[in-house]
Amino acid sequence: MEIEKKFLVKEVPKHLEQYEKWEIEQCYLCQRPTIRARKKNDDYILTYKCRTAKEQGIKDVNVSIEEELPLTEDAYLHLRDKADGIVIAKTRYRIPYGKYMVELDVFHGEYEGFFLAEVEFPTVEESRSFMPPEWFGDDVSGNKKYTNSYMATQESKKNL
Predict the structure, then answer these.
(1) What secondary structure does DSSP assign to 6-39, as a single string?
(2) pLDDT of residue 119
(3) Minimal CA–CA distance to 116: which of 28, 6, 2?
(4) Could you tell me the maximum CA-CA distance found in the chain, to the nearest angstrom?
C-alpha cells in the first residue's frame, strides 16, 4: 500500500547536489490501472499501480496498491516503444525532512522547469497531520492532472 501526498513547489531548495538522486525515465502502457515502465539510473522496473482512495472515500491523500517487478533493459526499451503519450524524464532528489523523506522531482524535456514534491506516509491519519516545509506550494494530492501518467498522456506544461 502506498499513501502519499503531492505538492507543487514554491522554491527549490539550495544545494540539491548534496542529496541522493536518481535519473528517471518512465512511460505508461495503461492508465487504469496504471502500468508503467521505468528506468531508474541503471535499473528497469515494471509497475502496476491501482488507486484505491476513492473507493475508501478519501479525497485529500493518494492511496494506491503498488507492485514493482524487475525488467531487463531490452524489455524496458520494447515497452517504451509501445507506450502511450510521451516519455517523462526527471531527476528525483531524496531530501530528508524530519522523519519523512521528500522526493523532489525536477522535470526535463516537455516539462522542463516544472517541480513536484511527494511524501509517503505509514497511515492516512499521519498524512493529514503533516506540516509541509516552507518551500512547498499547494497540495495537489487529489488532482489527477499532476499525476505522471496524466502528464504523459493528456496534458502539456502550459496547462499546469
Answers:
(1) EEEESSPPS-GGGSEEEEEEEEEEETTTEEEEEE
(2) 98
(3) 6
(4) 43
**pLDDT digits over 55-72, tens only?**
556 666 677 888 999 999
Query: Does pLDDT of 77 surpass 90?
Result: yes
Amino acid at 17: E
Residues 6+ apart with CB under 8 A from 15: none
Question: Is 44 within 8 Å of 72 (Cβ atoms)?
Answer: yes
Place of cell 528525483: 92
3-state SS assignment for residue 79: helix
φ/ψ of 15, rounded to 5, equals 60, 45
Write down the residue that cell numbers 508503467 correspond to. Answer: 36
**Distance between CA atoms of residues 80 and 86, nearest Å:** 9
pLDDT tens column, 36-56: 999 999 999 999 998 775 655
Question: How far is C-alpha 94 from the chain's CA centre?
Answer: 12
> What per-residue confidence (pLDDT) applies to 53?
56
